[in-house]
């Protein structure tokens, strides 16, 4: 007996010559109220077809693979990858004491109150000039050697588990970040993630020029996801995306399964209005650790005061921006 499927138009297609793995990944089963022609033997490991009731098999084109896109900062890690290595860069002579302090204050502001789109652009411009002339091999060595005590303790255990769940389901895991690829790649390696889509920096003769070739923020992230899906034939309608920030709403909207993780206020409001899933990652708790006063050459009290000023300044700036936009 020829095992076949029945479609809604009554078309019958032989599946005898298709490999089992392809068929198992290519069928859908729907309930309906008439006996089916057959439930295929390959689905049950039998040689003869099973004649059942209330099941319809529809042979489809083989399903495209599914991807899971993860933002990095405050989604996978409870810190900022762009600022996390400031102390190590200072210890290795890449930045000055003042640069290290500036990075710390920017990190404190970002972690405590977040950054607006304008502040992200300002940070991008500042960091791109800061890294100008750096040797790529030296940066890679520093980030790789210090990753385990700088960033690894800040990786959310819930994120690790979720990444493993996606792998177990056969999904491709991709980290997509506005941070520079040279900083994201060591973190991805720690997580066993092979694919990184991040802000790309220009390198000439092994040194960073300070030029940004591709800046992944907002719509650019969504465009990168769509391009990646086209190139690798992923099914975005069945894929997943995770982020904490309202700036990533375009990225989340690009997939069929968007998830807001530890969302800021604007993203939470949007996610709830769209019926998107909300998740909270708690382990580890995000912490702002003060640098050792000896390391930056000023008193800890001064650091604390500057941190408070940085946070207040961020809040005031946001308030002014909101007021100007509403005017």
UniProtKB/TrEMBL annotation:
Matching Pfam families: HAD
CDD domains: HAD_PGPPase
Top-rank lineage group of the source organism: Bacteria
Family membership noted in the UniProt record: Belongs to the HAD-like hydrolase superfamily. SerB family.
Enzyme Commission number(s) from the entry: 3.1.3.3
Membrane-traversing stretches: 296-321
InterPro entries per record: HAD-like_SerB, HAD-like_sf, HAD_hydro_SerB1, HAD_sf
Enzyme class: hydrolase
SUPFAM superfamilies reported for this sequence: HAD-like
Name this protein carries in UniProt: Phosphatase
Organism from which the protein derives: Corynebacterium imitans
GO molecular function (one): metal ion binding
Gene3D superfamilies hit by this protein: HAD superfamily/HAD-like, SG protein - dephosphorylation function
Keywords of the record: Hydrolase, Magnesium, Membrane, Metal-binding, Transmembrane, Transmembrane helix
């Amino acid at each position: 007996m020829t095992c076949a499927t029945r479609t809604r138009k009554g078309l019958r297609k032989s599946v005898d010559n298709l490999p089992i793995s392809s068929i198992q990944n290519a069928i859908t089963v729907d309930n309906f109220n008439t006996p089916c022609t057959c439930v295929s033997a390959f689905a049950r490991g039998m040689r003869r077809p099973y004649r059942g009731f209330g099941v319809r098999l529809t042979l489809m084109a083989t399903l495209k693979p599914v991807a899971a896109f993860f933002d990095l900062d405050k989604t996978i890690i409870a810190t900022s990858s762009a600022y996390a290595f400031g102390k190590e860069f200072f210890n290795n002579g890449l930045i000055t004491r003042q640069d290290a302090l500036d990075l710390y204050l920017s990190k404190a502001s970002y972690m405590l109150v977040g950054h607006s789109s304008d502040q992200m652009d300002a940070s991008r411009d500042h960091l791109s000039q800061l890294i100008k002339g750096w040797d790529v091999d030296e940066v890679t060595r520093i980030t790789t050697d210090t990753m385990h005590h700088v960033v690894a303790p800040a990786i959310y255990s819930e994120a690790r588990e979720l990444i493993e769940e996606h792998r177990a389901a056969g999904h491709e895991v991709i980290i997509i970040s506005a941070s520079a690829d040279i900083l994201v790649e060591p973190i991805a390696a720690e997580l066993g993630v092979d694919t990184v889509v991040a802000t790309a920096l220009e390198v000439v003769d092994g040194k960073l020029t300070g030029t940004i070739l591709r800046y992944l923020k907002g719509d650019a992230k969504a465009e990168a996801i769509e391009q990646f899906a086209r190139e690798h034939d992923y099914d975005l309608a069945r894929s997943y995306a995770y982020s904490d920030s309202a700036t990533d709403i375009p990225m989340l909207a690009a997939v069929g399964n968007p998830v807001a993780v530890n969302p800021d206020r604007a993203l939470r409001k949007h996610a709830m209005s769209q019926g998107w899933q909300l998740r909270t990652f708690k382990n580890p708790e995000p912490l702002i650790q003060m640098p050792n006063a000896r390391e930056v050459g000023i008193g800890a009290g001064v650091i604390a005061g500057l941190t408070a000023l940085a946070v207040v300044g961020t809040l005031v700036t946001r308030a002014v921006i909101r007021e100007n936009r509403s005017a």
